[in-house]
Write a structure and sequence with these properties.
Chain A: It is found in: Cell inner membrane. Chain A: Its main location: membrane. Chain A: It is a single-pass type II membrane protein. The complex is a heterotrimer of chains A (about 210), B (about 550) and C (about 375). Chain A is of the alpha+beta class. Chain A has two domains: about 1-60; about 85-205, Ctag/Cox11 (Ctag/Cox11 (Pfam 04442), Sandwich), CATH 2.60.370.10. Chain A is built from three helices and nine strands; from the N terminus they run ααβββββββββα. Chain A has helices at about 1-15, 30-60, 200-205, and strands spanning about 85-95, 100-105, 110, 115-125, 130-140, 150-155, 160, 165-175, 185-195. In chain A, the strands form two sheets. In chain A, strands 3-1-9-5-7 form a five-stranded mixed beta sheet. Chain A has a four-stranded antiparallel beta sheet with strand order 2-4-8-6, with no helix packed on it. The N and C termini of chain A lie far apart (about 70 Å). Helix content of chain B is about 65%, strand content about 0%. Chain B has helices at about 30-40, 40-70, 80-115, 125-130, 135-145, 170-200, 210-240, 255-275, 275-290, 295-310, 325-355, 365-385, 390-395, 400-430, 435-460, 475-505; strands at about 5, 540. In chain B, strands 1-2 form a two-stranded antiparallel sheet. With about 375 residues, chain C is α+β, with helices and mostly antiparallel strands. In chain C, about 45% of the residues lie in helices and about 15% in strands. Chain C contains ten helices and ten strands. In chain C, helix 1 (about 1-25) packs antiparallel against helix 2 (about 35-70), helix 8 packs across helix 10 and helix 9 packs across helix 10 (about 370-375). The longest helix of chain C is centred in the N-terminal third of the chain and has 34 residues, at about 35-70. The chains are: A alpha+beta (about 210), B mainly alpha (about 550), C alpha+beta (about 375). At the B-C interface, helix 3, helix 10, helix 11, helix 12 and helix 13 of B face helix 2, helix 3, strand 7 and strand 9 of C.
Chain lengths: ~210, ~550, ~375
């Protein structure tokens, strides 16, 4: 913009009778402007990728996608709210191509917010091959996921099972008494995925 | 524009010193193919962009004809569903990235230097590059259609995981070509920004910039902000599909809905990238043919800036059905509705410009008036779509298809045609064939409404978009829509014919002002515009 | 003022005309009112927005066309000089703003009503997969797939199209009227969207995540919808059909379905011990193949090159019997080949495997029996 002012003044000079030479445009500093824009381009490309962790943070704050935390919550001694009873419905699914049997041993629990509860899940690998599984949790309504605190969950780790093996997987949780009043019922779904191919070598070692 | 100008471009100058960007100016204009391959002249590059955009418009249009032919009747007649999906996908990609965006870049190339009194774009060699990589991007995209398994078939929005785990190998070509298109647009945007920042003629202050320059400046910033995000999104799709990452795969801790957030963070500003320059064009044409200054210039600028800023906080209105908490739905609903305020201001300003003017109806004005009416219809259906509870009913139906075609075809494309008719005599020095132009206008106007208006009805009645076959209750309207589609497609051949005639310099010579009432620097240079203009800057008072 | 009169006359006429057009109940012109309280609210909201938009359009276009008519150059109009007015600019910023608030309030109310998360009477897990829906009743032992029932010949224009062309399924979802039914919606592969216009319910089915929606239907009847999110080749061919029954009828239906499911399991066990003849296997296999497999692998077994592999002459169909059964039972992760263990019975899988190994010149002579499928399912081979 300072360039512009100079231009104007040179134009004024021209009007006052100087020859055309002074009117010649001053070489503008393009490279500086280009540099700044390129920086913005690179920055925005980075921002595109930064949206991935930002989205996770955003979801952790707002519960927008109904994912529960994938780290164990530390139980804080909160007062159990006996005036409310919350129903939690468990849905167990295996993704297409995942041959395990997978069931919640208790399909539905009713708990007071603040009280610890444990639910067990049964899995069996009926095939002839060893399989590593990953359970992906999802809560609906999504907001409830913010108040679903799991102190222990099989979904925090990969779950390896050898051919024909079966196991009981525990999940310990409590519901934050801050849970909004209008939610009296929510659903927690686990989907099991076969991740044998992409699993880390550490898991394979753990399996043997 | 209130610019009393003093045109000094004819002043012979013997010493150009540091001001000279060209090696070859004032010499002969190079001939033959090398002129076009190696050109760094903004007018040549503008012409290349415009012809490329028009060819892509015809190619994308041909795909639309395939779609409409298949949908002429219920049942599968002409193509099988997989190919149908490729047609809808590539039609969308070509029209967005191959037709509308390059057409606006072409207009910017031609007009921005002439409007601000600059001799050329700031970075002429990069200008050449940004055009010439574009044909390769589209060759790659079109070539992917001939791969085994066909080209991209996941919609131009390429939602994961349909575009990752469940797509064909052609996805790699798709990603590559989108990258090239993105680089091209970014280079174009850089050029526009640097040109406007650094090369305005003396006295051309920001609040004297012609509206087209203003809207393009803001568009260029939008491009800089969001094209890299698109590049990031396609890169993630590429690595998810071929390199084992799981950005969008729940099994690996990703989230397919996140793709939509990232995509629409690009996608909504992209919508405004395709309409802001149109606002600029209309803001030139309406005052010219009303013989009256643009009403509320300053508010037009502020409205454009607010539309651009708001476009960054409304993206999730494309995603209401993905399942969001109520507060998020409310936020995006209200933010989206807010956009209609500055957009409304623009429409009101145009109407106020016409009010008590001295209006005549030359072809550019006809297109501009059609733009105002039909774009407003598209804007109003957009307002209806913003209302979350009813959006659950409209979403992914033909109502949406009707909405965005009103905004993009009768909006963006009509504005491009208006611009072509408005500035064509300046470019060629000859008046175009007015009879043909009027035939083009009236055929397009009638057919485009037969084509898109009934889509509102089938959408409301429940026809989902992107389906190759439909239930019998939609049959009558679809027949009409297809007839309108073919007619609209054929009408564009009139335009092609007219353009060929214009390029062969047929027609009456025109004055430098061309249109009575036209104001601005570009109307003060001779017609046709000389190969080099404003080598010494004009003075804007 | 002339203009004001002109515009008010025009808006009245337009609104009146559009009201007549949309209220005469032509279902092919407008949104359906639907059959739940929510869908009625949504319909009213839609009409309110529509009328507001019509009035805005008429006023703006009225002024514009009046100006085009009255201020045209050919009648000698001289241009005025004004080009700025802060007052006017403020007015047409503030007035639309007020209109928006007027629109946002009822919209927000409806939205809050829609997102009611209170406990439901019945919960149904809806799972989309390429190109069918699966319904699982959480409170009862009922689950089934629901696939397009329109004959392929109708789609190929060989037979006349029926009344509910593309909007009919083999097993519709059944729900009771007057009860709050919750739909938990998810997907096995790509994103689908479960949509029944009459309930004003449209929710995306996202793989790995659940979404929920609900309805409370007032009137018994058959309600049809479609998948609304592009989900691949046969996106246009996965309709949703819901039958709403009176609660008593619904109870009877549930009991009947549970009984059928029990009998089917017993039958399955009985068939395990039996061997079917080649002829039986081929007949059943062909039927299953055409209904389930042909959408991708094509009736001639040649698939779609580059998209869906051919079975005719394929190595798997000619040599690897166990691998062949395994891919039908378990699917192939990361591809469109889904698991059919839930959709087909063991004897159907046996039959279709046999069919694929002996049709189109794949004359292996192999016969696969239900017990072979059972062995693969339980990892006994």
């Amino acid at each position: 913009m300072t360039n512009q002012k100079i231009d104007i003044s040179s134009a004024n000079e021209q009007e006052s009778g100087l020859n055309n030479q002074t009117l010649v445009r001053e070489q503008p500093n393009h490279s500086k402007t280009v540099g700044k824009i390129l920086l913005a381009v690179v920055g925005m490309f980075g921002f595109g990728f930064a949206l991935v962790p930002l989205y996770d943070v955003f979801c952790d704050i707002t519960g927008i996608n109904g994912k529960t935390s994938n780290e164990a919550a530390v139980y804080e001694a909160v007062e159990v709210d006996t005036s409310r009873m919350i129903t939690v419905d468990f849905i167990t699914r295996t993704n297409s191509g995942m041959p395990w049997e997978f069931e919640a041993q208790t399909q539905q629990v009713k708990v007071h917010p603040g009280k610890m509860s444990e639910v067990a899940f049964y899995v069996r690998n009926p095939t002839k091959r060893d399989i590593i599984a990953q359970a992906v949790p999802s809560v609906s309504p999504g907001t409830a996921s913010l108040y679903m605190n799991k102190t222990e969950c099989f979904c925090f780790q990969h779950q390896p099972l050898k051919a024909g093996e079966e196991a009981i997987m525990p999940m310990v949780f409590y519901i934050d008494p801050q849970l909004p009043e209008d939610i009296t019922f929510f659903t927690l779904q686990y989907t099991l995925y076969d991740i044998t191919e992409s699993a880390q070598p550490a898991d394979v070692v753990a399996m043997n | 524009m209130s610019t009393a100008t003093e045109n000094v471009q004819d002043t012979p100058s013997t010493d150009h010193g540091a001001a000279d960007h060209h090696d070859d100016h004032h010499h002969h204009i190079p001939k033959g193919i090398t002129r076009w391959l190696f050109t760094t002249n903004h007018k040549d590059i503008g012409t290349l962009y415009l012809w490329f955009a028009f060819i892509m418009f015809l190619v994308g249009g041909a795909m639309a004809m395939v779609i409409r032919a298949e949908l002429f009747q219920p049942g599968l007649q002409i193509v099988e569903p997989n190919f149908f999906n490729q047609m809808t996908t590539v039609h969308g990609l070509i029209m967005v990235f191959g037709a509308v965006m390059p057409a606006f870049t072409g207009l910017a190339n031609w007009l921005v230097p002439m409007m601000i009194g600059a001799p050329d774009m700031a970075l002429p060699r990069m200008n050449n590059w940004s055009f010439w990589i574009l044909p390769f991007a589209f060759l790659i995209l079109l070539a992917s259609l001939f791969m085994e398994g066909g080209g991209p078939a996941f919609g131009w929005t390429f939602y994961a995981p349909l575009s990752t785990t469940y797509s064909g190998d052609s996805t790699a070509l798709f990603v590559f070509s989108v990258h090239i298109m993105g680089i091209s647009s970014i280079m174009g945007a850089i050029n526009v920004i640097v040109t406007i920042f650094n090369m305005r003629a003396p006295g051309m202050t920001y609040m004297k910039l012609p509206m087209f320059v203003w809207t393009w400046l803001i568009t260029a910033f939008l491009l800089i902000a969001v094209m890299p995000v698109l590049a990031a999104a396609v890169t993630m799709v590429l690595t998810d599909k071929f390199f084992g990452t799981s950005f969008f795969d729940a099994a690996g801790g990703g989230d397919p809905v996140m793709f939509q957030h990232i995509f629409w963070f690009f996608g909504h500003p992209e919508v405004y990238i395709m309409i802001l320059p149109a606002f600029g064009i209309i803001s030139h044409i309406v005052p010219t043919f009303s013989r009256k200054k643009l009403f509320g210039y300053a508010s037009m600028v502020y409205a454009t800036v607010s539309i651009a800023l708001l476009s960054f906080i409304v993206w999730a209105h494309h995603m209401f059905t993905t399942g969001m908490p109520v507060f998020a739905e409310m936020f995006f609903m209200i933010a989206t509705m807010l956009i209609s305020v500055p957009t409304g201001v623009k429409v009101f300003n145009w109407v106020a410009t016409m009010w008590r003017g001295s209006i005549s109806f030359e072809v550019p004005m006809l297109f501009a008036i059609a733009f105002i009416v039909l774009f407003t219809i598209g804007g109003l259906s957009g307002l209806m779509l913003a209302i979350t509870p009813v959006d659950f009913q409209y979403h992914d139906t033909y109502f949406v298809v009707a909405h965005f075609h009103y905004v993009l075809v009768t909006g963006a494309i009509f504005s491009i045609m208006a611009a072509a008719y408005y500035w064509l005599p300046k470019w060629t020095g000859k008046m175009f064939d007015i009879g043909l132009a009027k035939a083009h206008f009236w055929c397009s106007l009638v057919s485009v409404n037969v084509l898109f208006f009934p889509m509102h009805f089938v959408g409301l009645a429940g026809m989902p978009r992107r389906i190759p076959d439909y239930a019998l209750q939609f049959a009558d309207f679809n027949k009409w829509i297809s007839v309108g589609g073919f007619a609209f497609g054929l009408s564009q051949l009139i335009f092609l014919w007219l353009l060929i005639k214009a390029c062969r310099k047929q027609g009456e010579p025109v004055s430098s002002q061309v249109w009575e009432g036209a104001e601005g620097l570009e109307w003060e240079i001779p017609s046709p515009a000389p190969y080099h203009t404003f080598e010494t800057p004009p003075v804007v008072k | 003022m002339k203009l004001v009169k002109f515009i008010s006359w025009l808006s009245l006429a337009t609104v009146g005309f559009s009201a007549i057009a949309v209220e005469t109940g032509r279902s092919d012109l407008n949104l359906r009112k639907g059959v739940s309280d929510i869908s009625h609210q949504v319909y009213d909201l839609h009409m309110l927005m529509f009328y507001i938009c019509v009035v805005i359009a008429v006023v703006v276009f009225g002024v514009m066309f009046y100006s085009m008519f009255a201020h045209r150059k050919s009648t000698g109009a001289k241009p005025a000089n004004f080009h700025e007015s802060v007052k006017v600019e403020i007015a047409w910023t503030v007035i639309p703003f007020l209109i928006l608030i007027f629109m946002a309030v009822p919209a927000a109310n409806t939205l809050i009503d829609m997102e009611d998360v209170s406990e439901a009477d019945i919960t149904i897990l809806v799972t989309g997969s390429q190109w069918k829906w699966h319904y699982e009743y959480r409170e009862n032992d009922i689950d089934f797939f629901s696939v397009l029932a329109t004959q392929p010949e109708q789609i190929a224009n060989k037979f006349d199209k029926g009344e509910n062309y593309l909007l009919e399924v083999d097993r519709p979802l059944v729900i009771p009227t007057g009860k709050k039914v919750r739909f938990l919606i998810t997907s096995d592969d790509v994103i689908h969207s479960w949509w029944v216009p009459d309930f004003a319910v449209k929710k995306d089915a996202n793989p790995g995540f659940i979404n929920e929606a609900w309805t409370n239907v007032n009137e018994p009847g058959i309600y049809r919808g479609q998948c609304a999110e592009l989900c691949g080749k046969d996106h246009g061919f996965m309709p949703v059909v819901v039958i709403a029954k009176e609660p008593a009828e619904y109870e009877a239906w549930v009991n009947e379905q549970e009984a059928i499911a029990r009998r089917a399991r017993e039958e399955e066990q009985r068939l395990l011990a039996m061997n079917m003849s080649m002829e039986e296997l081929m007949t059943t296999g062909e039927r299953v193949y055409k209904a389930v497999c042909a959408a991708c692998h094509q009736v001639n077994g040649e698939g779609l090159p580059g998209v869906f592999p051919a079975l005719k002459g394929s190595k798997m169909a000619l040599e690897d019997i166990d691998g062949h059964i395994d891919i039908i039972v378990n699917g192939s992760p990361g591809t469109s080949m889904a698991s059919f263990a839930r959709q087909l019975t063991m004897s159907e899988i046996a039959a279709v495997t046999t069919y694929e190994r002996n049709a189109w010149g794949n004359n292996t002579g192999d016969m696969v029996q239900a017990k072979d499928v059972n062995a693969i399912m339980n990892g006994e081979e």
